[in-house]
Structure formats: structure tokens, C-alpha cells
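hi! just following up on the protien thing from before. the input was this:
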Amino acid sequence: MFSGILKHLLILNDTFPYKRVTVTGGTGFLGRFVTGKLKAFDGVEVFVPRSHDYNLIEKNDVERMLDDSQPDLVIHLAAVVGGIGHNQKNPGKFFYDNLMMGAQLIEQSRLRGVKKFLATGTVCAYPKFTPVPFKEDDLWNGYPEETNAPYGLAKKMMLVQSQAYRDQYGFNSIFVLPANLYGPGDKLDLETSHVVPALVRKCVEARRRDAGFIEVWGSGSASREFLYVEDCADGIVKAAALYDERDPVNLGNGREVVIKDLVELIARLAGFDGTIRWQSDKPDGQPRRQLDTTRAFERFGFQAQTSLEQGLRQTIDWYETTFPEGGA
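and the predicted 3d structure came back as:
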């Protein structure tokens, strides 16, 4: 099986099988890396719809966007997303906006004869107590962790729709499940950001102020798997070019880290040597997260290349350079 994948990957180094690609969320954290990789291929035109031009929650705007871009391939990265606290404050919005974007985009893409649709799900779609490492076949074996269940379920509905449309209409829609992402360019708002950018900002700013401590949500006992954003972009481009099956696919590096250890690593790399105060009255979220990445490697040759320490160093360096005076 894998010898055939290697042959296709050699072709992918020079060409990409779709010439007109629409990337929703293409100006976002992950989207910028995906569009950059696509534009590196000769002859590929990338269209990135902007929110001030197209509201992808509305059917008419989705229709107009697809009519304007005429894509062969749609890569759907746009999402309403945030950390645990933001999910708790906006469960209805996170559910409705993500559900409607996915449902409208897949349906209107089918009606317009789009050749392929790539939907990005979320590791939050997995059941709260999924055995580690998470295998794609376990997606339906329980309810997601409560603090982000509305978001996770809304995104998982794209898998249901993709498989139903493949069965009834022969529509080539695929579904990938990235691990928690991090890297340069991530959101740094402490109210809405995910754990890594929030910790990077806290540690760097505490060091700059010579603060004696930082506060971190939860107990530190939960674990997560983190995927460097450029590695994720590489996996998405490979899946878009080479994968044409109904099965969902995890995108990760297959390694988990306990949050306590993550915080200590970021503090060390950022040069912060103060105290870490755990806010144990705040939720930890899902107890453990680690993905089985076998399917992505076997089906389209994806394997993450960036170690956690290397990726964190690059993220911290980006923050230090981009915000030398703080105030991100």
C-alpha cells in the first residue's frame, strides 16, 4: 500500500491535482499556512473568502461565494472557536454557526459540481472518555466532554453529511480531525485563545514584568496532544491531493503531554522562573487526548515533523519578535 503512496507523494512535490481552490478561513491561523502551501504549486489559483464580503452562515452568501470562485476543491477551515472558557460562554453560537457553515457549504458545493470537499473537524468531537490513543472508529462511542460538546458535535455533523452525500450522490467529501494546534500567528487574546498561546503570553509577559507568579486554569493533570500548525497544513494539503475515502482521519503527532509538564516547559523556554498557581476551581476539560495517527500515514503518507519543544521555541520566538513591548 505505502509504495503507491510514495509514488503519489513524488508527484505532489511538483503538481497539485486541483487548479481552482477555495479555502474558507484562509486568512486565519491555520489557513495562512494552507494557502501558502497551495500557492507554491504551479498553476493553482487560491480564493479566500473574507467575512466582510461573505457571511458563510447564510445560504445566499455561500451561493454567491461559490459562484464567484468556481472552485474544483473547497477546503473548509473557517470556524467559530476558542478555549474552554469561551466555549462555556457561547455554546449556542458555537453550535449554530459551525453547523450552518458546514451544512451550507457542503450542500451548495455538491449542487455546483465541486470535485472535492475537505472538511476539518476537531479532536473535541471525540467522546469524553475515549481510550488512548484515540482511534477514528471510536468517534461515536460516547458523548464529548461537556465544556466543548456543542462545538465538537457541530463539527462532527460534517462527517455525517460527507458520508451521506458520498453514499447518495457520489460526492467526494473527506473529513480530517486535527489535534490541538499551536504555532506562530495564533490568537493571543486570553479570553478566547487556546492553551499554548495563552501560556506563552502569560509566561513571557510575567518574565518581562518580573512577576512572581502566573495563574493557570485547572489542576494540571489533564493531557493534550499538540500539532504544530505548519505540520497540520502539510497534512491537509496531502489529504486534499491524495485521499478520497469516506473514513475520518486523525491529523496529529501521536504524542500526549500532561498540562503541568507543558506549563513548566513553556515557562523554562520563555525564561520565566516564578511560581505557577493552579486555579483548581476551573475545569480541566477532557481528561486525556492523544490521537492514533496510523491511518493518515497509511492512507496519504502524513507524519508530523516538528517536536513539541522545537515548535514551542519557534512560537515563543515569534511572540518575542512580534510583540517586543507586550500588549498582544
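The first strand starts at residue 20 and ends at 24.
Residues 91-111 form the longest helix (21 residues).
cheers
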